[in-house]
Design a protein that fits this description.
The chain has 76 residues and is mainly β. The protein has a single domain (2-74), classed as Immunoglobulin-like. Helices cover 0% and strands 63% of the residues. The chain has a 4-stranded antiparallel β-sheet with strand order 4-1-6-7, with no helix packed on it. A 3-stranded antiparallel β-sheet has the order 3-2-5, with no helix packed on it.
């Protein structure tokens, strides 16, 4: 693993229901900051994981978000 980054077990799956869904990763620490973004088109799937550096993931647009806690529909 790059830079010995500690990885946690929480994965989420995001499936875009429209073109242009944006996934934004936010940092851990004293100040929460944007650190990464991805764009998905309709039907594309992204599997994301919380890490030592990623404490939150923001989804902008219509997508299905699947977690161990259940399924959430964003953008509706």
């Amino acid at each position: 693993m790059e830079n010995n980054e500690k990885v946690f077990n929480d994965y989420i799956v995001i499936k875009a229901k429209e073109n242009g869904v944006t996934i934004i990763g936010l940092t851990r620490g004293k100040d929460t900051k944007f650190h990464h973004s991805e764009k998905l088109d309709k039907g594309e799937v992204m599997i994301a994981q919380f890490t030592e550096h990623t404490s939150a993931i923001k989804v902008r647009g219509k997508a299905t978000v699947m977690t161990k806690h259940g399924v959430i529909e964003s953008g509706e």
